[in-house]
Specification:
Layout (H helix, E strand, L loop, with lengths): L9 H19 L5 H45 L3 E6 L4 E4 L1 H7 L3 H4 L13 H14 L3 E9 L2 E11 L5 E8 L1 H24 L2 E6 L4 E4 L1 H6 L11 H6 L3 H15 L6 E8 L5 E13 L5 E10 L1 H23 L3 E5 L5 E4 L1 H9 L13 H8 L4 H15 L6 E2 L4 E3 L4 E9 L7 E7 L1 H15 L9 H18 L3 E8 L2 H8 L1 H18 L5 E6 L2 E7 L3 H17 L2 E3 L2 E3 L3 E7 L6 H17 L5 E3 L3
Parallel strand pairs: 22-23
Antiparallel strand pairs: 1-2, 1-5, 3-4, 4-5, 6-7, 6-10, 8-9, 9-10, 11-12, 11-16, 13-15, 14-15, 15-16, 17-19, 17-22, 18-19, 20-21
């Protein structure tokens, strides 16, 4: 609908209606028909409706304008800050309720008075200068002043905004009394805080990061023997009086705090005293204010003398070094464990042994579990590892005063024997000392004596009695821990023909060579014994059926490929083997019977071969 301006009076409306009617009649030239008259009346009704709608629109717009004006007036009157209008000489021409409250009077009698009269005497010159500057420069001026309200004063932030054509200015007042009171309380609190730190011996420093100026408290300067205001007032003064060995790190830590990389600054360094000596101090601090974009503005901290503590630490460090030196001088391999078996400390002999012994995949140093190290050293000897574990536990729990393995353990990788001893430290942490004393020479001598007493004098293999005793022990261990066990029965093929053809001396040499050939194929833990004549038995601990058969086949091939040379003549021979695998046997004689039966089948089957026995 287009906007139309209504006629100003009813006479004007009547005249316009008559003119329009005569215009219609002139165009037609004749009397109006009924249809034409009807159309004319419809147009008149349409115009009437348009006029009514325009009037409604105008009324609504006027109501909205009145509401807006009322709201604007309310906002002005009830704004939380004081708003005043002053003329060019500072007379109040308008103000809101907050402004009247700040000035301490009613609006009616405040209007027409000079604003400067309500400023305290002490602040009046500064306000006058601020007002004049705003009126002459035409720029907005900001500042702070105090308004007098009887015996009290209200502190306000003031903004003076000049109006166009220098007709006056707009003044905005924000009550800052509470903020000033808080600042005063903070000032007093800061003074008390500094006094408390001084009493505690802490020196305070306050660094303006932007200007580089540092305020050092009296106590701070006293720490280094300086009088008040004698230490300096720049960050460079502080840096230059820091020991050269500590300076770079101190400045790096300070920069990390400035860059918000750390939660606080914490650094120990040496500071130079007035007499040239050095004193250890602990400095702590934090950035207390930053710009909106995160740049540090101010950093505050403390410094305290820790020279005594540092001397104590150095003395303890010297004692620790001495203790470690004594610890490292011991020949035994020693490790200190916590109550859970974790290695806390080792001596040089322990570290050198682990490093030199080729345990590439084994742990052996601080933080590792001792039993894992021990397991690697024993080559997986489960019985020995379990015995050591039980012994350490009994010492930690106080059940026994100390513990020692009943027999030395063997380290297969470097072929050494060690005796294990466990001794408690008797401290609150329940630590224990474990030592490995090498007894290889003693053990070798013991084994040599044992071999003399328990080996076959001709071949060097175990005697029948000793072999059977050891085999029964190995069978019991295998059954206890569920480990596999294999036994081989070996019989030299046609050995009687060798004796008959070459004589018994050559036969003895062949037997000796046969044992050497078999032993070369076996592992360190395997046992070979002479059962009688040309019959031998081999015990294979912790060996599966497949592994035992493979090793037996290697023996057959090695014997066949290595004839014995006697008096310049090479004597070839073969061997037949019966294999027995532990299944449900409860004695070694039963297991040996399985292997013997298999050997019988191997010899009947053509010799120079192996057969596996079955229950």
């Amino acid at each position: 609908m287009g906007y139309r301006k209504n006629p100003v009076s009813a006479a004007s409306l009547l005249r316009l209606a008559q003119e329009r009617f005569l215009g219609h009649q002139a165009n037609i030239g004749t009397a109006l028909t009924l249809a034409e008259a009807q159309q004319l009346f419809e147009e008149l009704e349409i115009h009437q409706i348009e006029l009514e709608l325009q009037n409604e629109h105008l009324n609504a717009a006027r109501a909205q304008l009145e509401v807006a004006l009322n709201q604007s007036s309310e906002l002005y009157d009830f704004a939380p800050v004081g708003i005043l209008s002053l003329d060019q000489i500072g007379t109040i021409v308008k103000l809101n309720l907050a402004g009247a409250t700040l000035l301490g009077g009613e609006r009616a009698w405040l209007l027409g008075s000079r604003f400067g009269l309500y400023v305290t005497d002490a602040e009046r010159p500064a306000f006058g200068a601020l007002f004049d500057r705003a009126m002459t420069s035409g720029d907005v001026q900001d500042g702070e002043t105090s308004l007098a309200q009887g015996p009290l004063a209200t502190h306000v932030q003031i903004r003076i905004a000049p109006l166009p054509q220098a007709i006056g200015c707009q003044v905005v007042l924000v009550d800052a009394t509470e903020r000033k009171q808080i600042e005063e309380r903070l000032r007093l609190s800061e003074e008390r805080w500094k006094l408390a730190l001084d009493a505690a011996g802490d020196g305070v420093w306050d660094w303006n990061v932007q200007t580089g100026e540092v305020v050092f408290s009296r106590r701070f300067e006293q720490l280094f023997g300086f009088s008040e205001n004698e230490y300096g007032c720049r960050i460079e003064d502080w840096s230059l009086r820091t020991h050269p060995d500590d300076r770079w790190r101190m400045m790096t830590d300070l920069q990390a705090q400035l860059g918000d990389e750390t939660t606080r600054y914490f650094h120990e360094h040496r500071g130079q005293c007035k007499d040239g000596s050095w004193k250890w101090v602990l400095s702590r601090g934090t950035v207390v204010s930053r710009t909106p974009d995160g740049k540090a503005l101010r950093m505050v901290g403390t410094s305290v003398d820790i020279t005594g503590r540092k001397r104590t630490e150095e003395a303890l460090l010297d004692a620790s070094r001495f203790q470690q030196a004594v610890f490292d001088s011991l020949m035994a391999h020693i490790a200190i464990l916590d109550r859970h078996g974790t290695i806390l400390q080792t001596n040089a002999a322990w570290r050198k042994y682990v490093a030199d012994s080729g345990y590439a995949e084994a742990p052996g140093f601080v933080g590792d579990n001792y039993l894992e190290v021990f397991d690697c050293m024993t080559g997986g000897d489960l019985e020995t590892v379990l015995a050591a574990s039980a012994g350490i536990t009994s010492v930690v729990c106080g059940e026994v005063p100390h513990f020692q393995l009943q027999h030395p353990f063997f380290a297969p990788l470097d072929k050494r024997w060690f005796l294990v001893r466990v001794t408690p430290v008797h401290d609150v942490a329940e630590r224990v000392v474990v030592s490995h004393q090498e007894v290889t020479r003693l053990k070798e001598a013991e084994l040599a004596n044992s071999r003399l007493a328990n080996t076959d004098a001709l071949t060097g293999a175990l005697s029948r009695r000793n072999f059977l005793n050891l085999a029964e022990q190995e069978l019991a261990r295998s059954m206890r821990y569920g480990m596999p066990l294999m036994v081989l029965m070996l019989d030299m093929d046609h050995f009687k023909l060798i004796n008959d053809r070459y004589g018994h001396a050559v036969g003895d040499a062949v037997l000796q060579g046969f044992v050497l050939t078999v032993t070369a194929v076996l592992r360190e833990s395997d046992l070979v014994g002479r059962i009688g004549g040309e019959e031998f038995a081999v015990l294979l601990p912790n060996t599966t059926r497949e592994g035992g058969c493979a090793l037996a086949q290697r023996i057959i091939e090695s014997v066949r490929a290595n004839p014995i040379e006697v008096n310049g003549e090479r004597i070839a021979f073969t061997v037949s083997i019966g294999v027995g695998c532990l299944v449900a046997e409860t004695s070694f004689s039963a297991l040996l019977g399985l292997a013997d039966a298999a050997l019988y089948r191997a010899k009947n089957g053509g010799r120079n071969r192996l057969e596996v026995g079955s229950a």
